[in-house]
Amino acid sequence: MAVRQAIPGKVEDRALPRRPPAAPSLENGDRLTRAEFERRYEAMPHIKKAELIEGEVHMPSPVHHESHGRPHSDVITWLGTYRAATPGVDLSDNATLRLDLDNEPQPDALLRLDPAAGGHSRIADDDYVEGAPELVVEIAASSASIDLHGKLNAYRRNGVQEYLVWQTYDRQVDWFELQEGIYSPLAPQEGEPGVLRSRVFPGLWLDVSALLADNLAGVLAGLRRGLESAEHAAFVKRLTPGT
Fold first, then answer.
1. Fold classified for 64-239
2. CB-based contact 176:184 (threshold 8 Å)
3. What residue ranges do the domains of the chain occupy?
4. pTM value?
């Protein structure tokens, strides 16, 4: 029987375990497909937020309290109160959103209708949101932010019906509605210059003056008026037939 003689100082390749190659790291500015973006993102669980916008990776800076954290919590409180009063409506906070092959943002908030109620997005088998939710909200620093450029174009092109951007440094709120493929600013109702009303979600009213004044109680009071309106009652009735 032949015996293979070991050569001192030499290690045969087959004696070493072969490890699968690690996924490359995710870097700001990388140009990736959505599939490759997801592969790298999932391999780096320490990264809490990364987005693919028009095929380019964007990784936000650490979040500040007054310019983002607190405004974000106010928006979630406002939308969460609406969801609690409106069956068939779903809310998500910082959920990954598969829009198309080049765009996978992670919006600050999204409000969507259940597909059974006419919604255009769905929850995939792996628990990601796919398609265009009816409303997306982003907290931005200023008009120079990607939220008003690359993201706006991606949301518009994919059919997000309403897009709200709160520019905290500029102290401005822009609420757009999709009309014939173009985002147009929502116009306030006559006699209510500081209040904006959603067209897609009846009863979702926003007192912009209260929001910019850091008056959350005023924001919720304005929403309460919307929830008590006839338009919201009719919307709830449409969402819950037979009740």
1. tt1808, chain A (3.90.1570)
2. yes
3. 64-239
4. 0.85
